[in-house]
Design a protein that fits this description.
This protein is α/β, with parallel strands linked by helices and 257 residues long. Helices cover 32% and strands 14% of the residues. Strand 1, helix 1 and strand 2 form a beta-alpha-beta unit. Helix 1 packs antiparallel against helix 3. It is globular and about 50 Å long.
């Protein structure tokens, strides 16, 4: 049985993906195809390369995202995305999708022409960096003369490449929409931000129907995109939510070979 795993973007909240992987493996469920955006692209790539959930969690806890040495100079962004290449090269010595143990699909958004590109072959590290390059914070990443930013800009839940290839699909969405009232939307920027979040959430949730199981811990609304100090708590939330989801759908993967 081919099992697809879709991992949404979400910054530090992507640590929940690692908890999901741990829970799935404890249930003897091993996804065969992976698609991930942004932090989901990082987790997905490491998992597709054969790293254990504990190795991936260690990556999240030890790679310094916000370091003065990474600040961009004379580039459109606070942090220079190129400076993350060496960190990833340690984990991906063969910089190629074909070197992975599982098929992997990573979207990134072309910041110039506004199109989304799905990377699945050729060089691996730059597409990972591009997909995780949060606009305005990280500089765009150049790949074959074109410049890309966060895949979540246009596709935060990249289920599309898995639909025809997988018998079952598990989706992990780590950007739940926070409940608000009009009292929370006092300023124009609050309304703009809320509108953007609604748009991204709607685009993603419209694709949930392609999945046989959706894991989306609502408690993640309490953690922000760059809250790297909460990695352990977020990881545990992903783990526990997945365990409950698997308990509810015991029969779903019974026929797995």
């Amino acid at each position: 049985m081919n099992i697809g795993l879709v991992l949404s973007g979400g910054g530090a909240r992507g640590a929940a993906h690692i908890g999901t992987i741990k829970a799935l493996e404890e249930a003897a469920i091993f996804p065969t195809h992976i698609a991930g955006t942004s932090s989901g692209a990082i987790v997905g790539a490491l998992y597709a390369a054969g790293f254990s959930w504990s190795d991936i969690l260690n990556f999240f806890k030890t790679i310094p995202l916000f370091n003065a040495k990474r600040f961009a100079r004379k580039k459109p962004g606070f942090l220079n995305s190129d400076n993350f290449y060496d960190d990833l090269k340690t984990y991906f010595p063969e910089d190629n999708f074909e070197a992975l143990k599982k098929p992997l699909f990573i979207p990134a958004a072309n910041i110039v022409d506004g199109t989304s590109k799905m990377f699945s072959k050729g060089q691996l590290i730059k597409p990972i960096i591009a997909s995780a390059s949060f606009p305005g914070v990280f500089t765009p990443t150049e790949i074959n003369g074109k410049h890309y930013v966060d895949g979540g800009t246009l596709n935060n839940f990249p289920v599309e490449p898995l639909i025809a290839k997988c018998d079952k699909i598990i989706g992990v969405y780590v950007n739940p929409l926070k409940e608000v009232t009009m009292k929370d939307l006092k300023h124009s920027y609050s309304v703009v931000e809320r509108s953007y979040k609604i748009m991204v959430a709607a685009e993603s949730m419209a694709k949930f129907s392609y999945c046989d199981m959706i894991i989306s811990p609502q408690e993640l609304v309490n953690y922000n995109t760059f809250g790297m100090n909460n990695v352990d708590a977020i990881f545990q939330l992903g783990y526990e939510t997945t365990k409950r989801a698997l308990e509810e759908k015991k029969e779903l993967f019974k026929s797995q070979d």
